[in-house]
Amino acid sequence: MTWFILSALAISALCVFVLLHPLRRSVDNAAYEREEQNIHYARERLQELEQQLKNAAISATDYEALKLEIESTLANDIMLESETAANDASTSQANGVVIALICTLVPFSAAGLYLITGTPAALELQQATVAPHASQPSAEDISTMVARLEQRLQQQPNDIEGWVMLARTRLALGDYEQSLNAYKKVTELGGEDANVYAQMADAAAMADNGSLSGRAAQYIADALRLDENQPQALWLAGLAAAQRGDQIEAQQLWNRLLPLLEGSPKQQQELRDIIAQSRAAQLGSTTVANRGAPAADNAPAANNAPAPGADQAPAAQAAAQAGVQIRVQLDPAFAEFANPDETVFVFARAKSGPPAPLAVKPLRVSDLPVEITLSDADAMLPQMKLSMFDEIQITARIAKSGNPVAQTGDIQSAVAQTTNDATELIVLTINQVVP
After folding, report:
1. Phi/psi-derived region of residue 204, left when phi > 0, alpha when psi is between -120 and 50, beta in every other case
2. Each residue's pLDDT tens digit in the chain (435 positions)?
3. Closest alpha carbon to 264 in 412, 432, 414, 401
4. Is the peptide bond before 306 cis (omega within 30 degrees of 0)?
5. What distance in Å separates the CA atoms of residue 363 and residue 360, rounded to the nearest whole number?
6. 257 with 238: CB under 8 angstroms?
7. Is residue 412 within 8 Å of 406, Cβ to Cβ?
8. Considering only CA atoms, which of 432, 284, 268 is closest in space to residue 353?
9. Cβ-Cβ contacts under 8 Å for 192 (sequence gap 6 or more)
10. Do residues 255 and 229 touch, judged by C-beta distance below 8 A?
11. Of 72, 152, 282, 406, which one is least surrounded by beta carbons within 10 A?
12. What is the distance between the alpha carbons of residues 375 and 275, in angstroms, rounded to a whole number?
């Protein structure tokens, strides 16, 4: 919002300068310059007369007569300049009134025109939802801004930019269905765009509890139809393939996305980790499928001894069902830097294994403090579950931008080390700012 205001002021100042340029010439300076020219010319003529007198080119009588004529002419010119300056002063006074009117009317007219035809509430919403280090508005303040924007859109239903801002804000606040409705209005107004459809797919998936089939799948297809390299659509399409168990297609889609993230090294590395995790899941699934049946047929039966790993299976299954008990809380010293509607992600990663998250559970700052269970039900990929790794690392992070990938300005907890069958409560206190 600050940059918008500064840009608007700069443009207004430039317009005022252009309009005032013909009027800003100084009358006093002009009169002074003419007077100086007359005096300079008179001095030159007197020097010439003195030189002629010395050379006996003219007589003393002629010298005095010509000198008197030059002085009289100079006096008359100065009197005429005084009268002209008086007339110019009145013109300058009139110009001053015009200048004052221009300096007043142009900025205020521009501001009034923006208030009538623009969407000022969108600027307030953008400042409230984007600035991570600014003083955070309350939930009531944001609700008021949203209401003002919606009222503006009722009066100006064809304002595409206003609908886009409303859709993004609703998505950030977790109002996924309302966000979808706003995005649909954008497409109805002719705002069909790959980025819009990708956002719609994200909102539909969140509204459908993370499912990327149905509505989300159609929006993903629409986005890739308009732009086959739309980054968010490629990511969601790969995630949808992984949900279906098609790891090969997921890897192909994410490999297409990798070079598009060159400007975001953190996200690019995160995606490489996820691709590696997908490959490991693919290989693990293939290995189990190839040797699972023969192992049952060839199991030793002479002494009815259990097959290798039989003792561990119930333990893993119990761990998968029980999960890890976690308490997530926000340090009171950081409460003023967190908005109640911001998303909190709780991650679990393998201590020795793929660095990409094994399980993720989204929360809200308004939910804190809260006790949750992180289990295989929260797995990012079906083939890479929490119960498959004995030692895990758990952390919680407030995503100021709503992006699961860590960004500068996010607030997070320290990493807690535990095991997948731990029974004690893991406490995560969010009290560190991501540099």
Report:
1. alpha
2. 455 555 666 666 666 565 555 555 544 455 556 666 667 666 777 777 777 777 777 777 766 767 677 766 766 666 665 555 555 545 455 555 555 555 666 566 655 555 555 555 555 555 544 444 444 555 666 777 888 888 888 888 888 888 888 888 888 777 888 889 999 999 998 878 899 999 999 888 888 877 788 899 999 999 999 999 999 999 899 888 887 878 889 889 999 999 988 888 877 888 888 888 778 766 655 554 454 444 433 333 333 434 444 444 444 444 445 688 999 999 998 888 888 888 898 988 887 766 667 888 888 899 999 999 888 888 776 667 788 888 889 999 998 877 777 778 889 999 999 988 888 899 999 999 887
3. 401
4. no
5. 10
6. yes
7. yes
8. 284
9. 226
10. no
11. 72
12. 22
CA–CA separation, 359 vs 377, rounded Å?
8
Q: Is the pTM of this model over 0.70?
A: no
What one-character-per-residue DSSP string does 152-195 give? HHHH-TT-HHHHHHHHHHHHHHT-HHHHHHHHHHHHHTT---HH
**How do strand 343-350 and strand 359-364 relate by DSSP bridges?**
antiparallel
Provide the token pair at 159. 């304002």
DSSP 8-state secondary structure symbol assigned to residue 287: H
How far is residue 56 CA from its own chain's centroid? 88
* Interatomic CA distance for residues 412 and 297, integer angstroms: 50
Residue type, 47: Q
Helices 27-54, 60-117: axis angle to 10 degrees equals 160
218, 230 contact by CB (below 8 A)? no
Q: Which amino acid is at 424?
A: E
Domain map of the chain by residue range? 2-117, 135-276, 319-433
Q: Which residue has the tokens 């060159």?
A: 262
What 3-state class would DSSP assign to 37? helix
Q: Tokens 């595409």 sit at which residue?
A: 160
Q: Identify which of 318, 361, 321, 363 has the alpha carbon closest to the alpha carbon of residue 342.
A: 363
Query: CATH code for 135-276?
Result: 1.25.40.10
The residues, ordered by sequence, that sit 6+ positions from 185 with a Cβ below 8 Å of its Cβ are 157, 163
Find out whether 134 and 59 touch, Cβ atoms under 8 Å: no
CA distances from residue 175 to 161, 203, 348 in whole angstroms, order as listed: 19, 9, 26
Cα distances (angstroms) measured from residue 410 to each of 137, 173, 186, 398: 17, 17, 30, 6
Q: Residue 256 corresponds to which amino acid?
A: R
Contact 251, 241 (CB under 8 A): no
DSSP bridge partners of 324? 374
